[in-house]
UniProtKB/TrEMBL annotation:
<dbReference type="InterPro" id="IPR044791">
    <property type="entry name" value="Beta-glucanase/XTH"/>
</dbReference>
<feature type="active site" description="Nucleophile">
    <location>
        <position position="112"/>
    </location>
</feature>
<keyword id="KW-0964">Secreted</keyword>
<keyword id="KW-0134">Cell wall</keyword>
<dbReference type="InterPro" id="IPR000757">
    <property type="entry name" value="Beta-glucanase-like"/>
</dbReference>
<keyword id="KW-0052">Apoplast</keyword>
<keyword id="KW-1015">Disulfide bond</keyword>
<dbReference type="Pfam" id="PF06955">
    <property type="entry name" value="XET_C"/>
</dbReference>
<dbReference type="InterPro" id="IPR016455">
    <property type="entry name" value="XTH"/>
</dbReference>
<dbReference type="GO" id="GO:0016762">
    <property type="term" value="F:xyloglucan:xyloglucosyl transferase activity"/>
</dbReference>
<feature type="signal peptide">
    <location>
        <begin position="1"/>
        <end position="24"/>
    </location>
</feature>
<comment type="function">
    <text>Catalyzes xyloglucan endohydrolysis (XEH) and/or endotransglycosylation (XET). Cleaves and religates xyloglucan polymers, an essential constituent of the primary cell wall, and thereby participates in cell wall construction of growing tissues.</text>
</comment>
<dbReference type="Pfam" id="PF00722">
    <property type="entry name" value="Glyco_hydro_16"/>
</dbReference>
<dbReference type="InterPro" id="IPR010713">
    <property type="entry name" value="XET_C"/>
</dbReference>
<protein>
    <recommendedName>
        <fullName>Xyloglucan endotransglucosylase/hydrolase</fullName>
        <ecNumber>2.4.1.207</ecNumber>
    </recommendedName>
</protein>
<keyword id="KW-0732">Signal</keyword>
<dbReference type="GO" id="GO:0048046">
    <property type="term" value="C:apoplast"/>
</dbReference>
Amino acid sequence: MAVKAALLLAAATWVCLSAAAASAFEFEDVPTVAFDERFSPLFGDGNLVRSSDDRSVRLLLDRRSGSGFISSDYYLHGFFSASIKLPKDYTAGVVVAFYLSNGDVYEKTHDELDFEFLGSRWGGQWRVQTNVYGNGSTSHGREERYLLPFDPTLEAHRYSVLWAPTHIIFYIDDTPIREVIRHPDMGGDFPAKPMAVYATIWDGSAWATEGGKYKVNYKYAPFASEFSDLAVVGPRADPVLRFPRRAGAGADQDLLGLMTADYAVMTPQKRAAMRAFRARQMTYTVCYDAVRYASGPFPECDNSDEERENFSAWGESKTVVMRPRARGRRRGRKAGAGAGAKGRTGVASS
């Protein structure tokens, strides 16, 4: 009863704070950890390279293997974050992922929250995909894809997931890009079991770039992704019993602290920034995909007829498209024209 009361109080507090004016949102307030404090190697052996101070990790993909790491504990809700620098040059077929999952414990009823980065033929023009699975709902995942407004191969950017009992927020740097509010009709589709934190790089040639048309080209290997500023804020939990390891008043306090933290509160200013990002960068959303989901949008989707006009029937944006920039000079162009275009993302927006 105490946990339920704390959840109701936290939810009410979240609603009230969401309607209030925003204070500055800064990730500097989130403590980071050394790799050995919260993580362990998952696979890849020599393709996982830890820094001398143990504050960052390089994940490599070559002909022999990809690589990855996993958190040492499972968590029931929390805030999970990493600064990631993606591989440069030709990266078609390469997939870098930062995600939460309990698939190792619940093979057929697993939960998952994803950041998946999909490589490209054009240098820095990576795409990022987010997804939400609950209780094994892989047959109707909640994908969204976006272009990035920067070249993610030049420097690290922070990618974060807030997972609360009432809502989920995906962030890029300090900008929220997606909010999933728990709707009663979602049922078991909302992730509700303890999950571990993963980071991986692997060969996704079968699907990652234009549906598998372009494969990983290992003459550009090794592909290196760098993870730093690792942050894990949340109650550790038993994945089978599904309860926080800290019980009673301590668990209530942890939940209330999470729900009232800046990164858990969607203020009007942050929601406006999110909508602006989505209007400029989102290339696909499941909420407007009437081909795969003919029965209608998912219950948590906040659709509008005006916005729907910007999307095709299969959920692809009509206004945000990837346009590869010219690489090198074209005949008849002046020297220097288009300089700096290599590796940059071209976005056409209405």
